[in-house]
Amino acid sequence: MKLSFKSITAALAVSGVLATIPLQVQAADEQFVPLFTYRTGSFAPLGIPWADGKIDYLKLVNERDGGINGVKLAFEECETAYATDRGVECYERLKNAKGGASGFDPQSTGITFAVSDKAPIDKVAIETVGYGLSQSANGSVFKWNFPLLGTYWTAADVMIQDIAKKLGGEDKLKGKKIALVYHDSPYGKEPIPLLKARAEANGFELQLYPVTAPGVEQKSTWLQIRQKRPDYVLLWSAGIMTPTSIREAQSTGYARDKIYAIWWAGSEGDVKDLGQVAKGYNAITIHNTGESKGKIYDDLKTHLYDKGLESGKDTKGSLAYNRGMVISMLQVEAIRAAQEKFGKGQHMTPEQVRWGFENLDLTEDRLKEIGFDEMLRPVKTTCQDHMGDDWARIVQWDGNKFNVVSDWYQSDKQYVDPLVKSEAEKYASEKKITPRDCAAES
């Protein structure tokens, strides 16, 4: 039988449509979560447990729950080595993959800066738990950015609060000298505006010590610290820069209990090889310590560990691993919130997931239900507030493990809010963004 050209063309057209059906079904049955990681490079000591925690929570949701209301989570790692150009390449490659990315956790302030201009065009959320652009807490300007649980301004302010408490009140800060030793990058520079505002208001002298990446050469920095003798040192480091700082502090005789490190410099991997050398070292955290306990770890043992499905046998239970789980949990809960509005058991588009991030409401009961009640405080986001509640506390290394040594703090809004407002307005003006009317949207 001979087929006409028209018949052949029609048959090919039908076969072409049929060939796309499995991909469409897969997209409907799965929700894609891209994972930026840095298992290589100078920040790898932090990046490895962070990535393992992120992946293991996604695996747990699939194994324990069968996904989110039956929608399985698909994920793919993309190695950035903390390099901004590689992060942008990962973003471009994965933003439209498998039905669209359910948001990005760039794991780098520099990458966050680079993709924040792209996100409104591509309509995909940027999730930065504890980092990123601090002013992006303002959801009316930063529709697509979510610096959940706290920013570097949160961290810097809480450090100052804890120092003031130890001194006997904020009035005792006057005349003190506080140094910032920071990674000379967008990440390291983020706390400076808050610390300058605090220094002016509280009357302490702020000393700034930038450290060139990757941070393995710090002798001159700590010799200056020995000469100028600040009362406290705030450390904004990550990866191999952190143990280098602690060793230099020891060699110049600077007391480790006078050092306060940002959360990315406050995990077991940063200090375990130093042992007693790091004793007294303080760090800030947005969740409790890295103890392997509670319902979340019971579930991990049953559904992953006992089956040999965990991503990192040596990283589980660490502070960085737990933080990775927190990040993925917030991602999952944003997808779940989106499903509540747009359709349970359905694949959510990137725009719908963005709505979920903006409408998170993790109550104490909900945190208990999913096993995070011993790790986090409740958090709620809105159109205006893309950060939610910014609880943080101080942990201290005793030579063997980190212990919680403070109550929960929240940032002092009299210092943080004016910065968020002014810097968000400046950003909107520079980028020609018309802020949303959140009152009208609600």
How would you describe this structure in keywords?
442 residues; alpha/beta; eight-stranded mixed sheet; two-stranded parallel ribbon; disordered N terminus; signal; Leu-bd; ABC transporter substrate-binding protein
Write the layout of secondary structure elements.
Layout: H1 5-29, E1 30-37, H2 44-65, E2 72-79, H3 84-94, H4 109-116, H5 119-122, E3 126-127, E4 145-146, H6 152-167, E5 177-183, H7 186-189, H8 192-202, E6 205-211, H9 219-228, E7 232-236, H10 241-251, E8 259-261, H11 268-271, E9 282-285, H12 295-303, H13 319-342, H14 350-358, E10 361-362, H15 364-370, E11 379-380, E12 391-397, E13 402-404, E14 409-410, H16 413-431, H17 438-441
Parallel strand pairs: 1-2, 3-4, 5-6, 5-7, 7-8, 8-9
Antiparallel strand pairs: 9-12, 10-11, 12-13, 12-14
Helix pairs in contact: 2-13, 3-4, 6-8, 13-14
Euclidean distance between termini CA atoms = 65 Å
Number of strands: 14
Share of helical residues? 40-55%
The Rg value, from CA coordinates, equals: 23 Å
- Give the structural class: alpha/beta
Overview of this protein structure:
The structure is a single chain. The protein is of the alpha/beta class and 442 residues long. It has 17 helices and 14 strands. The protein has helices at residues 5-29, 44-65, 84-94, 109-116, 119-122, 152-167, 186-189, 192-202, 219-228, 241-251, 268-271, 295-303, 319-342, 350-358, 364-370, 413-431, 438-441; strands spanning 30-37, 72-79, 126-127, 145-146, 177-183, 205-211, 232-236, 259-261, 282-285, 361-362, 379-380, 391-397, 402-404, 409-410. Strands 5, 6, 7, 8, 9, 12, 13 and 14 form an 8-stranded mixed β-sheet that branches. A two-stranded parallel ribbon has the order 1-2. Strand 12 (391-397) and strand 13 form a beta hairpin. Helix 2 packs across helix 13 (319-342) and helix 6 packs parallel to helix 8. The N and C termini lie far apart (65 Å). 49% of the residues are buried. The model is unreliable at 1-27 (pLDDT under 50). Residues 33-399 form the Leucine-binding protein domain. Belongs to the leucine-binding protein family. This is ABC transporter substrate-binding protein. It holds the Pfam family Peripla_BP_6. Residues 1-27 form the signal peptide.
